Amino acid sequence: NLSRLFRLISVQSAPKMGLAPRSQRFLRWFSRFSGSFRSKLILEKHPGSMLHSKKQILIADDELNIRRVLEAQLTREGYEVQSVEDGLLALEWLKENHVDLLISDLKMPGLDGMELMRATHALDPEIPLVMITAHGTVDNAVQALKSGAFDYLQKPFDQTELLTVVAKALKTRDLSSNVAHASPSARAPHGILGKSDAVMKVFSMMERGADTPTTVLVTGESGTGKEVVARALHVTSKRAERPFIRVNCAAIPRELLESEFFGHEKDTQGGGSSSKPGRFELAEGGTLFLDEIDSIPLEVQVKLLRVLQDGEFERVGGVRTLSSNIRLVAATNADLGKMIEAGQFREDLYYRLNVVHLRLPALRERGGDIPLLVEHFLEKYNQKLGRAMTGLSAEVQHVFSAYSWPGNVRELENVLERAVLFAEGSLVETEHLPPEMMRDVGLLTSDRVEPMQSGESLEVGLKEQVRAAVNALERRLISKALEQNEQNVTHTARFLKLSRKGLQLKMKELDLRDKVKSDRPGPTESQNGETNTGSTGSMR
User: Fold this and answer.
1) Are 58 and 99 in contact (CB under 8 A)?
2) Phi, psi of 156 (to 5 degrees)
3) What is 90-126 written as a DSSP string?
4) Dihedral sign for Cα atoms in the order 436, 438, 440, 445
5) 245: helix, coil or strand?
6) What backbone torsions phi and psi does residue 427 show, to the nearest 5 degrees?
7) Average pLDDT, the chain
8) Which of these, 3, 113, 166, 261, is most buried using a 10 Å CB contact count?
9) What is the mean pLDDT of residues 115-141?
């Protein structure tokens, strides 16, 4: 909050404000301090993200003023933003760079927002898209939501509305990313790989309940594939041609959840200037998937219960009763029974949800499926990284069998992706596994720490050692990624989920820039800050 307060005072304008030189120096110091302090907090909360702290947003709009306003507001909030003037340029950027969120105008020359959305989902179905629309095209924006867009903004929109939608979209992606299961195929007809009795029992219940309007409650630990099951229930039902709308309840602020579910009328939510349908309306005739349903506050649970009982609801601020024809699938990794005892979840809602209960087994309960999953993920990352890994060493097979897998299949996929990246031979060895896995199975009792120099203070020595260890790990990771991508900086940045500029700065910091070949000529910036892409478009 202090950082945001001081950002309101531009250091460049300080002399014009009559601030004393000492105050100007303090502002410059605080600007540097707040930036480093924020990075420290990010690293402490998300230790796996040291190479990737800023979310990257791509804006596609043919109006220069809209691009500039969006870019300024989002950059001020700490996001890394690129903007292009049409859908074709956006698609080119998406092919070459990592993007966490796409914001696109609905009407653009060349490739409009709907066509861009379909092309984006073909490249990466997990990239959320927020559509920008004018008043006359709201119906088209609603159709975009039913086709897979995350949300839409109607012009003119205010900063609060923009930042709320962006935060929801990014948090939803973070919570539902890396779904570690195969796409539905002959090998995995329900999108889940496995032949164990526990998995076959789930398959049997899914087949019996897929083509019914009955509400389904899917439970299981994080990483077991609850969303995959929800999608499978939808695509194997008569509702398959209708919308599949997913909502991660934990990603939405509690005060906005009712509006998210049921929609709102004009001027009822944050000064909004137009009515907006909720997820129940968008899912009409199809399937509504509510993930982390345990996050819903009690006052909203009452209204959700009414929809399930009577099939009716009203928008927030509205008086007209709307009917609902949806199939509801809910999911949670919480113990709803204990929440009922604690008064945090309604018992009557629980029984309405729990008509068909699908409990997904943890990976440790289906250890016989691990070889099949290993084969699948090695094949996936061999293709992605251009490697030829053939399997696991005998020691690693022992570790995989003995490990408890708290992150389930998602953790298994992440471990194998890392191993394929760093392995030199054809087998995954124990040296490629995270230390916590080795400790869990009793093969590692302590971390190796280099001895401190005599006379060195503990505080200084610890800081220096941590900094050196982080730099060494970053250097190794970037060097390996560059090698895998044939020294191409652009492709390496996309692989590491960094912007090209961010990777170049990190390489300069680690003295790696002179050790790689320059890849294709990048765009050049003009005097006014617009990036020349060699075409009629502009890219920032």
Assistant:
1) yes
2) -85, 140
3) HHHHHHHS--SEEEEESS-SSS-HHHHHHHHHHH-TT
4) negative
5) strand
6) -120, 150
7) 78
8) 113
9) 83
pLDDT at 299 over 80: yes
Contacts for 8 with CB less than 8 Å, ≥ 6 apart:
none
pTM, two decimal places: 0.63
Q: Does the pLDDT of residue 175 top 70, yes or no?
A: no
DSSP helix, strand, coil percent of the chain (3-state; round to 5)? 50, 10, 35
pLDDT at 532 over 70: no
Q: How far apart are CA 331 and CA 215, in angstroms?
A: 11
Please state, in angstroms and rounded to a whole number, the distance separating the CA atoms of residues 199 and 5: 53
- Sheet of strand 327-332: strand arrangement: 244-248, 287-291, 327-332, 216-219, 356-359
CB-side exposure of 8: number of CA atoms within 13 Å?
A: 4
Mean pLDDT of 495-520: 74
β-strand pairing of 391-392 with 356-359: unpaired
pLDDT tens, 323-361?
Answer: 999 999 999 999 999 999 999 999 999 999 999 999 999
Q: CB neighbours of 329 closer than 8 A, spacing ≥ 6?
A: 215, 216, 218, 230, 233, 234, 287, 288, 289, 290
Calculate the alpha carbon distances from 384 to 377, 381, 388 in Å.
Answer: 10, 5, 11
Q: How many whole angstroms separate alpha carbon 362 and alpha carbon 356?
A: 19
Q: Rounded to an integer, what distance in angstroms lies between the CA atom of residue 510 and that of residue 502?
A: 12
User: How high is the pLDDT of residue 19?
Assistant: 54
Task: Give the model's pLDDT for residue 16.
Answer: 42
Nearest to 170 by CA among 269, 235, 102: 102
Residue 380: closest CA among 220, 196, 187: 187
DSSP state of 286: S
Q: Is the pLDDT assigned to residue 194 strictly greater than 50?
A: yes
How high is the pLDDT of residue 508?
A: 83
**Residue 436: phi, psi to the nearest 5?**
-65, -30
Instruction: Please give the structure tokens belonging to residue 535.
Output: 């075409």
Given a contact cutoff of 8 angstroms between Cβ atoms, the answer to whether 362 and 194 are in contact is no
